[in-house]
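Please, does this match?
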Amino acid sequence: MKKIEAIIRPFKLEDVKIALVNSGIVGMTVSEVRGFGRQKGQVERYRGSEFTVEFLQKLKVEVVVDDEKVNSVIEAIAEAAKTGEIGDGKIFITSIDSVVRIRTGDKDEEAL
């Protein structure tokens, strides 16, 4: 099993959700996060003054999938989240040792 975490632009969430559902993903977690990468923030203007927003608002989408679905899920997220501009985000893949569904006690693949 793998955990896939994608940092995406907020306005791309609906596209990513649709792509994941079409890939057979039935659950996901979405968190509001802030950060910066190569963009190094952005300059904004408020009441005539310029200031730099160093931590940009992003969303983190997390899903846990069986190993055989990893590549299709990564491709679906990347295609749906891409604008072609700097700041589109990143996808991180980590191994998951075990999963337990709290309600039923199901473990690992049955818990997904």
Remarks:
- Strands lie at 2-8, 29-35, 42-46, 49-53, 56-65, 90-95.
- The first strand starts at residue 2 and ends at 8.
- The mean pLDDT is 89.
